[in-house]
Amino acid sequence: MVVHIVLFSFKEDNKKKHIQKAKEMLEALPEKVETLKEIEVGVNFSDKDRAMDLSIITTFDNKVGLEVYATHPEHVKVVEYLKGVVAESRVVDYVLN
Question: Which CATH architecture fits 2-95?
């Protein structure tokens, strides 16, 4: 199994609105992207300086499944939206044994 984790920090302009919309868009992806086995979307409540605003943890059967997800038109729509509202993001991809 492959795990793909992304952390997002949103721009301040309409931050709460954009976080909610991103959450809804991301949570709709399992119905649209066959290789996406599971997604967990978390909205941060911590006020720590190093905190990020939103996280996703996704799982795939293998690396090919992650690659299909990355280029899937429905995922690309979400990425395009995020590019306009996210200030920074970080990613971790690993194989779960």
Answer: 2-Layer Sandwich (3.30)
